[in-house]
Amino acid sequence: MKSKFFLAPMADVTDAAFRILCSNYGAGLTYTEMISSSALARKGENKLFDVQKIENPIAVQLMGNNLEDISKAVKIVSKKVDLIDFNMGCPMKKIVNNLCGAALLREPKRVKEICEVLVSSSKKPVSIKIRSGWDSNSINALKIAKIAEATGVSMITIHPKTSVQLRTGGVDWKLIKKIKDKVNISVIGNGGINCPEDAKRMFDETGCDYVMIGRVASKNPYIFKQVDDYLKTGKYDSKCYSEMIKDYLKLAEKYKTNFNYVKGHIIYMTKGIVGSAKLRNDISKAKNIKEIKKIIV
Ligand SMILES: Cc1cc2nc3c(=O)[nH]c(=O)nc-3n(C[C@H](O)[C@H](O)[C@H](O)COP(=O)(O)O)c2cc1C
């Protein structure tokens, strides 16, 4: 991997063009958004599984709870990816109500069964992505990490917030350190990175092996170059949002990205820029990439 900074899986955000953009800017590993293993197993394909030949390394993220479907899905995706990641952290109601995502943290026995199926269904390395636990009274990330390690999982991402916290509240980086100190598999720290300085601090404070970056990358995908430069030289430069958008649009055209994703990215990348409200209003009315190109000069 060319760097220790990874692009987080994000639903409706991490399309192929965006992943390749982040990779071009220096991300060491990128992930597809989470894909239902049952949907994939049923049809044998899924439009969210949009991995391109040029993507290397690339991880797919699966979610689900049905062991047979998980095994089938792993076999379908294995050839095209370098890592199979499994979601045990999504707190969304429609996911946890089906006993998937973060709901699995309440079922360590099921976690063990799923990890065993993941590892035995593919020769590719497997990772899981977890939260701290279900709620503040049931923090069990270390127990889950040990189960994963014992079953042959190679890597674990910890986003140290509970499921009931959703996207609110603080992240407990001490938990990342605790897990890193107690397991012998690679640990990816995730959450609370807003600038290159934060990423360095996460390495320093937790000793994690890799840092995963989510929301700030959707606003500023160039962060991957910035964090890498900052770690190596102590300084970094910035890239104008219009340059990032132009780079993204070229890729979106090439990989025929769903236009709603394209608009979403431009809206994220222009947020917080002085005078950008009118720009976003114009973008929201655009019907295709050609019209967007005329607006972003
Ligand atoms: C729009 C959005 C979509 C997300 N989708 C996923 C997903 O599909 N799978 C997953 O494991 N996490 C998902 N997440 C969580 C992120 O991967 C990440 O754990 C979280 O945003 C914390 O990292 P950050 O503070 O760097 O954003 C999503 C987050 C956002 C904001």
Please provide a written account of the structure.
- This protein is of the alpha/beta class and 297 residues long.
- The protein has 2 domains: 5-233, Aldolase class I (TIM Barrel, Alpha-Beta Barrel); 241-295, no CATH class.
- Helix content is 46%, strand content 16%.
- The chain has helices spanning 16-24, 37-43, 67-78, 93-96, 108-120, 141-151, 173-182, 196-206, 215-219, 223-233, 241-254, 259-270, 276-285, 289-295; strands at 5-7, 30-36, 58-63, 83-88, 126-133, 155-162, 186-190, 210-213.
- It has an 8-stranded parallel β-sheet.
- Strand 6 (155-162), helix 7 and strand 7 form a beta-alpha-beta unit.
- The longest helix is centred in the C-terminal third of the chain and has 14 residues, at 241-254.
- The relative contact order is 0.12.
- The structure holds flavin mononucleotide (FMN).
- Flavin mononucleotide binds next to strand 2.
Output the number of helix runs: 14
Task: Classify the helix fraction into a percent range.
Answer: 40-55%
Oligomer: single chain
CATH class of the largest domain: Alpha Beta
List the ligand species.
flavin mononucleotide
Radius of gyration: 19 Å
